[in-house]
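WARN no homologs supplied; continuing
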Amino acid sequence: MRKLGIPPENLQPGRYVGPNFAVTPCFEAKRRPLVLDRDYALLSLWRVSFSPTSGTEGEVWQLVRFESNGDATWRRIDYSGAGPGLDTVTVDNVTAPGVNPVDPDGVGDMDILGAAVANHTVPVETHSRALNTFNVEVQVATARTGAPGNKLDAGLCSFDDTAFTVDADGYVSLAGGLGPAIDSIDVDFNTAPGTDPVVPSGTGVVSVFGNVVTNGTNAAAPVATHSRAANQLHIDVQLATAVTGAPGDNDDVGLCSFDDTMFTVDGNGFVQLIGGGLAFDSITVDNVTGPGVNPVVPSGAGLVTIAGAAVAAHSIPIETHSRAVNAYNVEVQYATTAATTTAADSGICHFKAGEFVLDANGFVTLGAAGKSLITVNNGAVANLGFTLSTQTLTVHAADGTALSTSNPGFVFVEDPANAGQFKTIEVTANQVMVNTEMDGNTFGITSGVDWGQDLPLYVYAMTNDSSNAIAFAIGRVPNLVVSPAAANIGDPSAANADIEMSLYSFDDITEAEWDANPVVCLGSLRATWGQASTRWTFTATDSEDGLGRFNESREFVMPVGQNGADAAGYFELNGGTTIPVFTTNAPKYYVSRNGRCNLNVFHNGDGGQDGAGAVVMYWCAPYLARTTGVNDTSMGFGQINAAAGGIQVSAQAFQTDADHRIQLDRSDTGSSTNLGDWTNGARYWEFDGSYMIGR
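OK structure emitted
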């Protein structure tokens, strides 16, 4: 220990006698002062020296007092941090005698207190209200109207123990229930200034009143809640009213009073007929089902309920039937379908609008929709139609609505088990087919070649072996009478429709149950074929497409490269060298619903390429022919050169039923023309003829 400054003469208080000026003793040691360092004058300074055993070099301590037990109290008076020491605190708010910033008191003490204050839109703040003191103040909550736009009104709150429970974790629940508190009441209707829902007043009150209103005020409700003023609702009970006949519902019921010349009403509201007694004592009925009785007796009030009722057909057209005590029905059965005409099956029915017309006397005639029986190839249909929309083909009811058990369609098709007889098969659900489902089904189109021109497709209804169901299908020819062999019927999971006479079913079927059965051609639409995608693309329908329409008057154009023709034309190369090219080509055809293909073909002028090759030249038709050796196309004519009137040619018969070839014959030799005959610039060939499609 070494002493610094000017030491006093005495170390004990009260024994020092010296100069009147104060001298502060100063000491330095390699540690901090302890409570046992008592032998120093008050206000002595102690500095911690270098390499101390406690504290840090440079700390300065001052002896400020001696405790009652003699211990010395030293206070550190230096600051050794990176910045200045904390000597004041700035607060959010100040109320005199508080100050801002807040200073410590003379012994370095500053009070920091917690406080709850009235709500004043500052949820939490520091606030000085006295010297050397500031509060951390949290405001209490307040009542407000509407959802707050900010959190300035938030604050501490307590909860009414009659309405809320608060557990030890501060979790708040509604007392007595698990649901949310009621903050509004939904009413049946309101009249301004009433509101729906009704909300409480500013004091949390909703007024509920009873009220009597005239019949019909409640909009067909005998009792209704009705808000007519803010924070208020009425329970409106309507008065009774007179009605004609038994009401079909309880809309007209209400409060009423009774004519005292006809009724008596006691203090309990019990109503009786004046004069007492019963109007009758029993009624005998045709039938009874418990708890009904026979005979039917009145209730204690002399009442027998007689109700009209429609019941399921049960071979009794009209009967009285008791099904409850003191009540019976006059029951009329519904009509039903039956195989024979007996009175027992008769009953009441109603008629579908559009299909039937009823006059004021109940006289029934067929309406426009009811006459929608369309006779088509091999049969007829009723209440059926089809629509094409964005490559989706849908068979539906004739008016475009969905088929159902209450809105069925019908197909009249030949009975496969009884030749010459027809069966009526009901269709109760729409049938839908998307064009992509037909991918890979070629219907005999030439492999690797597009059919880029419209061709007709036909919608068929085909029946199964049991002749009790209908499947809808697409075909390429209009004159099928029976479905093809199972191997030539396609569906979404089997791309088997690969010949001209194939059918493609909308739905997956077991083909063997549907082959070689009667079919009905319903109508037509059009499509093109893309070889790369193996996909049919339906053409938008117009007035010649649809159910009962077969595109018979539509002109179709034969595309190049199909059915054996050269890729750039309409004639078969047949092993020759070159196909002749014509300047003008108009290969048109028409198809009738009975399966006849009418050709209107014209090729004229030198297109820059002569024919070459000693092989027969054939023109390739759009469909296979039904027969061979018949000169159905003999109306054709033309010439292969212009010298001396030219050598005339004519169209002759199809060669086989396995191809599409029409042979052209020379008039000078009677034999067929060869490719090499068509070299003259004046060449042409045209014909109008027809042939039956299919084998």
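The longest strand covers residues 596-609.
OK
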